[in-house]
Design goal:
Its EC number is 2.3.2.26. With 1322 residues, the chain is α+β, with helices and mostly antiparallel strands. It contains 49 helices and 22 strands.
């Protein structure tokens, strides 16, 4: 099975072991090889490449992978059922560990079905080897699943037909004979797999005979059973039809996982030999060495056996497969010697390569296999396929003098004949020897014509070699009846063929052929097939076409050859990083994003499983340390294995982009970007379908199609490996950076792994390599498709791996998905993404709103452990505000409880110590600051700001964190009781006075009403700090302020830079428009310096005088940075420093086309930073007085602005929907009149109404639904001099009397709003 995606370079299968080499040898002898079909266009022949490495042959790879999975299942079954026997075992799934933990308590072993179920699940996980016991021993007995198999002699089949396999309906599964060398036959109905099957005649005559429900198939099975002397059936077992495990994992398909392991096949082979021995066949000679016992390690003795099951022949070889050591059938040997010679036409040239099928006493043509030259690999084959040797290692020239595989030191699990016929070679068509008969070469047969005695289904290169097709560039000719293909080589070795690279034209051609033939893989992707929808560029040549010959049509065999060649090509190219990069790059640059996506779209609709698995193998090379890291002498670098073919960062990034485009192409093809966004929003909630009241509505069928692909195991496996590679490569970069000695070495590490992807997604990049021409609508849709689907894939991996904890792994797939989301969030403007598209509501809905954010404050994030709140953009603003306020409330509660506890201790000490009243008062006064439960401010209306400054100055942090209570105007007789409304009134008055432009600390723009610092203000810095403290205190207590600051201030408060024009557009719109025109000016209409007449300086108007300074580039050295001139704070300081106007430059350079970009950047920097730096730094210190610095990281500038200022737009319709009534009915005449009057108010009157009821003229963050607006009945007024409406601002309640008519209500309400000041009961 596959190694763990998070450690792909560590584990895996050692394909270099002797037993694995024996498996490869057997498969090389028997597996079907792909060859270029005869009707392929000539352009493909130039790209054909022979394969001499068995690991690079797709049929061998698939069969060996299935074999390894079965071995792994067998080990887990042994571990679950028997245990390892170690008394210190700590593996939870091991029976020995379970027995030790149970102690003396009884414990039940898993039954056969349960063991198989759990073993299949454990073997299917990433890095399954980590779940095996280190001391696991081989099984003591054959698999228990064999107990259900019954071997019946053929005589019984003839006597009792009801006992035949077909009549019982449950036959053991196998492909052909179970063990041809031992003469056994295990019959089964064909099992449908996920891969597509051929239709009708494509399957072949032999499969037609064995089709379920076919009488001919039943007769064929009985004939086979009679020929072999026995048949195998399964004991009928009653199962509970309601049991899911019994009806799924108790089927023949899953039992085959145990039946077809080497140990099980050897056991069944021994039983088969016993039956044949009892049969007493006269034409067979057997020895005592024919039956061998299974060794402890699962392999057999070194001797190799081969034979013909049907004839009873059995031959034993020792080391040399061509040397006969055992007895043979003398009758067949005599028949071969007595056979007449083959006649040849005198006019035909002798074909030195032609060979005839002969009995086993003659040397058979062997497939030459090149395994010895491949050095042992430190990475598994699946993890790093790029390290495998291929014919390209010699510059594209195949070595014809390859050596045959060594067999002297190998240990075959069983004879090659058994290997090749086992059922675990699923989907691999194996060669079956036809009946031996002389071959008569016709007088006019060409060199390349195939052996007429060959099976109609077989395309084995061994048979092709026997018939003369031996050129290493020759193509398959099995479907060309009567046509010949010239061969220009006499080499007898026939290798599988593949294309050495792909491109857009080849992908289109191959996919068209497969779709026309109907041999594409059956899959669940939508749409199931794709036709060309691009306009090819004129200079790219004509599309590829298949060759045709008169009288020849496409046959089932030709369609099968194209399918095999397609699979081999896709596997060979896509699983090799070097070939994949060479296929989709041009002049060192990747194809444009849409062309690459189109290629992947077509391939995934033809063979999605093959594409995903091959790219997964190629992605294993991303985990090989880059060469700069391998060359370091650091002890840390020595921990990583050395790899010669390691990818650089740029190569790794391009490979990453190729694989990610394949994932994007797997999603259903939609033609509306709004559907993409709606589906993404639905899935962000963790939903597959959108229910009633959902955020978005889309067709159920489309939602299910998305669910199918985002839960596909192969696609998810590829995504998990890619995301893991992101963090791994960045870890390599950090190690390299920390160990470099010079800047040049640091620069050698290269770009980030995601840089090539973002370069592709930059659709304004004019340097992109555009291969195919798509329409403008397709290009526009693609710009939205790729970023959204990448976010969906990252979200799918996160949802799949999340365990419910806010602390997540940082170096696995989850951390890599977060890294991709973070990188895309930082480039969201280039990717045309909004903030809402990054949100994942699923996590917030399942985490504690109070405890989780408080625990995050003490969490220390590392490379291996991250917290979800480190990535606040995946949460919506309302959730972040609730987390922010939960942190503030937690700190407030803790400060309140500490003060309460201290006060209780003081009281206890006073009582126990019998202190006098004087001493008690002194003690209370000394500990007043520490023991006070509230932060109490006594404010007079005449001096609101001065009283606030005096009482907040030099306050301790613990005092500021306590709940706030304000006594406003009590000296004047006001009876206000502060439950929130008095606080709101206090802050409204204090902030209005503090930001008054008359004081010279802040300036207010006349157009936008934005407030900003006055550069070089004469006000002392401590006043700015106290104003910042007032803002902080309001935010800490959950109050909004009647202020309007530009977003630039909030960006600076959160530590974000102000460098772009859109950062200042809301505060200085005229300036932003002028600078934009400067940047966009075309000098065809005039020179910049002549049209704009701007000098390279920054100037402000302060106290009626201009202060100007020439702007300088930003300095890295702190001592060299520019400082804006400050006015003296005190009058006596005016003579100590020169006036700011005295430093104005006499002359400054003009802004030209060459420096206008730098001018705009410097101007923004001087406006937002340099000119107001002292004032802002003081304000920032005060702003952080009450707030936890880390809690501010949860907020964006927009969210912080809404928390401080609230929402200034008041929607009366929304307010009416969320209003509540006490004593009124919503349909009452007075209520209808009230809303009719309020609806016609202008913005100023709307703010007055809201302030009258809630003490704030702003809607709090989150909208009207987060505020209280209650209309309570306050009696009836019939006279003209009745009561005015009043309110309880603390509770958001409007006390509205019932007036006699609408006009009276309008007058009374307007009078109340215009004269609202002061409190009764607040």
């Amino acid at each position: 099975m596959t190694p763990d995606a998070s450690r792909p370079a560590d584990g895996g299968y050692n394909h270099g072991s002797p037993s694995d080499l024996d498996i490869l040898a057997g498969l090389w002898e028997e597996a079907r090889f792909a060859r270029l079909p005869w009707d392929a266009p000539g352009e493909l022949r130039d790209l054909v490449e022979d394969i001499d490495n068995p690991k690079r042959v797709y049929t061998i790879h698939k069969a060996s992978r299935r074999h390894n999975f079965q071995l792994l299942v067998q080990k887990f079954i042994v571990q679950l059922h028997e245990g390892c026997g170690s008394e210190y075992c700590s593996t939870p799934t091991c029976f020995t560990c379970r027995k030790r933990l149970a102690g003396r308590a009884p414990i039940r072993r898993y039954n056969t079905t349960s063991s198989r179920t759990l073993a299949t699940y454990l073997a299917s996980q990433d890095n399954p080897e980590s779940g095996l016991c280190l001391g696991l021993r081989p099984p003591k007995a054959p698999p228990a699943a064999l107990n259900s198999l019954v071997f019946l002699p053929s005589q019984k089949l003839r006597d009792d037909p009801s006992s035949s396999p077909s009549s019982k309906g449950r036959a053991a599964a196998g492909r052909g004979a179970l063990a041809k060398g031992n003469g056994s036959s295990l019959q089964s109905n064909p099992v449908r797999t996920r891969n597509g099957t051929l239709n009708g005649s494509d399957i072949g005559e032999s499969r037609e005979k064995s089709r379920p429900g076919s009488s001919s198939g039943d007769d064929h099975q009985q004939d086979q059973a009679q020929k072999s002397g026995f048949a195998v059936t399964e004991t009928a077992v009653s199962t509970d039809y309601r049991s899911f495990a019994a009806n799924v994992f108790g089927t023949v398909a899953f039992k085959m996982l145990e039946w077809l392991t080497p140990a099980a096949i050897e056991q069944m082979s021994q039983k088969a030999q016993v039956f044949q021995t009892e049969a007493g066949s006269s034409d067979r000679i057997m020895t005592t060495n024919d039956i061998r016992a299974t060794q402890d390690d699962g392999s057999l003795s070194p001797r190799q056996k081969s034979g013909n099951a049907s004839s009873g022949q059995f031959v034993e070889t020792n080391g040399d497969p061509n040397k006969v050591n055992g007895p043979v059938d003398l009758k067949e040997d005599r028949q071969h010697r007595d056979a007449p010679p083959v006649s040849r036409s005198g006019s035909q040239r002798r074909n030195s390569n032609a060979k005839v099928r002969a009995p086993s006493t003659t040397k058979q043509p062997k497939r030459q296999l090149s395994i010895d030259p491949f050095a042992p690999e430190t990475l598994s084959d699946d993890s790093f396929p790029g390290l495998l040797k291929s014919p390209r290692a010699n510059g594209g020239v195949t070595d014809r003098n390859v050596r045959a595989i060594k067999t002297t030191n190998s240990t075959l699990s069983r004879p090659i004949s058994q290997l090749s016929s086992a059922g675990f070679f699923d989907d691999v068509t194996l060669e079956k020897m036809p009946p031996l008969k002389p071959v008569d070469f016709k007088s006019k047969v060409g060199r390349a014509q195939l052996d007429g005695a060959r099976s109609s289904e077989s395309t084995s290169p061994r048979d092709i070699a026997a018939s003369g097709v031996t050129s290493e560039r020759s193509c398959s000719n099995s479907s060309n009846q009567g046509a010949t293909v010239d061969s220009d080589s006499d080499d007898e070795n026939v290798y599988p063929q593949t294309l050495s690279k792909l491109n857009a034209d080849i992908v289109d051609f191959i996919c068209d052929v497969i779709q026309e033939d109907g041999t594409a893989e059956k899959h669940m992707l939508e749409p199931p097939s794709i036709t060309r929808f691009h306009n090819k560029y004129a200079n790219r040549g004509k599309p590829l076409r298949r060759r045709s010959k008169a009288g020849l049509t496409s046959s089932a065999k030709l369609r099968l050859e194209w399918k095999l060649f397609m699979e081999q090509t896709f596997f060979y190219v896509l699983s090799d990083p070097e070939l994949a990069l060479r296929s989709f790059t041009l002049k060192g640059q990747l194809y444009d994003s849409q062309t690459l996506w189109y290629c992947m779209l077509r391939m995934t609709r033809v063979a999605p499983s093959l594409v995903f698995n091959s790219l997964w193998m190629a992605a294993g090379s991303l985990f090989a340390p880059p060469k700069p890291l391998q060359s370091l002498r650091s002890p840390t670098a020595k921990l990583f294995p050395q790899h010669e073919n390691a990818l650089s960062n740029s190569e790794a990034g391009r490979l990453m982009s190729i694989c990610l485009h394949a994932l994007v192409a797997a999603a259903p093809l939609v033609t509306d970007s709004r559907q993409l966004q709606d589906i993404s929003r639905i899935r962000s909630h963790g939903l597959s379908l959108a229910g009633s009241g959902s955020v978005a509505q889309q067709p159920v069928e489309l939602c299910l199609q998305y669910e199918d692909i985002f839960t596909d195991e192969l696609a998810l496996r590829l995504a998990r490996r890619l995301f893991t590679a992101i963090t791994t490569r960045r870890y390599y970069d950090d190690i390299t950076e920390s160990n470099v000695q010079t800047a040049s070495e640091y620069d050698a590490k290269g770009e980030d792994i995601l840089a090539p992807l973002f370069s592709q997604l930059d659709f304004l990049n004019m340097d992109a390599v555009y291969i195919l021409n798509f329409s403008f609508s397709d290009r526009t849709l693609h710009e939205a498709r790729v970023p959204i689907l990448l976010l969906d894939w990252a979200r799918a991996v996160m949802l799949n791996d999340w365990n419910g904890s806010p602390e997540v792994s940082g170096d696995g797939p989850f951390g890599g998905a977060l890294a991709l989301i973070k990188a895309m969030y930082e480039k969201r403007q280039d990717l045309l993404l909004g903030d809402a598209q990054f949100r994942s509501e699923y996590f917030a809905d399942r985490m504690d709103t109070m405890q989780m954010p408080v625990a995050w404050l003490s969490h220390v994030s590392t490379r291996r452990k991250l917290h979800l709140l480190d990535f606040p953009y995946i949460f919506n603003p309302a959730t972040l505000v609730s987390y922010f306020r939960a942190i503030n409330f937690s700190r407030m509660s803790r400060a309140f409880e500490e003060a309460t506890s201290l006060q209780e201790r003081i009281d206890a000490i006073s009582i126990r110590s019998n202190l006098s009243t004087h001493h008690r008062d002194v003690l209370s006064e000394q500990l007043k600051a520490a023991a006070s439960k509230y932060l109490i401010l006594d404010i007079k209306r005449e001096s609101v700001l001065q009283d606030a400054f005096n009482q907040l100055w030099r306050r301790e942090e613990r005092e500021l964190q306590r709940p706030l209570k304000v006594h406003l105007g009590e000296q004047m007789g006001e009876e206000g009781f502060d439950s929130g409304g008095v606080q709101q009134e206090f802050f409204r008055m204090a902030i209005a006075e503090a930001l008054n432009p008359d004081y010279g600390a802040f300036a207010v723009d006349e157009r936008t009403r934005m407030t900003w610092f006055v550069p070089g203000s004469m006000e002392p810095k401590w006043k700015f700090e106290l104003i910042g403290m007032l803002v902080s205190l309001a935010v800490y207590n959950g109050l909004t302020l009647p202020v309007t600051f530009p977003k630039a201030l909030y960006r600076k408060l959160l530590g974000e830079p102000v460098t772009e024009l859109h950062h200042i557009a809301d505060g200085w719109p005229d300036l932003a428009n002028g600078l934009t025109k400067l940047l966009e000016w075309d000098e065809k209409d005039g020179l910049v310096e002549n049209v704009f007449l701007r000098t390279y300086e920054f100037s402000v108007l302060v106290f009626g005088e201009h202060v100007t300074r020439e702007m300088k580039p930003q300095a890295t050295n702190l001592s060299e940075r520019d400082e804006w001139p400050q006015f003296p704070e005190m009058a006596w300081q005016s003579g100590l420093h020169p006036s700011p106007q005295e430093g104005n430059p006499a002359d400054a350079p003009l802004v030209t086309n060459a420096n206008r970009n730098a001018y705009v950047s410097d101007y923004i920097r001087y406006l937002a930073d340099v000119s107001v730096k002292p004032q802002f730094e003081a304000f920032q210190r005060g702003f952080r007085a009450c707030l936890h610095v880390r809690s501010l990281k949860l907020l964006t500038p927009a969210i912080l602005q809404s928390i401080v200022e609230g929402i200034q737009e008041i929607d009366i319709g929304e307010l009416r929907r969320h209003a509540r009534y006490v004593g009124w009915d919503a349909g009452h005449r007075t209520i209808k009149d009230f809303w009719s009057i309020v609806k016609r108010y202008d913005d100023d009157m709307k703010r007055k109404l809201l302030e009258f009821v809630t003490a704030s003229d702003r809607v709090p963050v989150g909208g009207v639904k987060n505020m209280m607006f209650i209309i309570q009945k306050n009696g009836c007024e019939d006279g003209r001099k009745g009561r005015l409406p009043t309110s309880y601002t603390c509770y958001g309640t409007l006390l509205l009397p019932e007036y006699r008519d609408k006009e009276t209500l309008r007058d009374r309400l307007a009078m109340a709003l215009e004269n609202a000041q002061g409190f009764g009961f607040a």
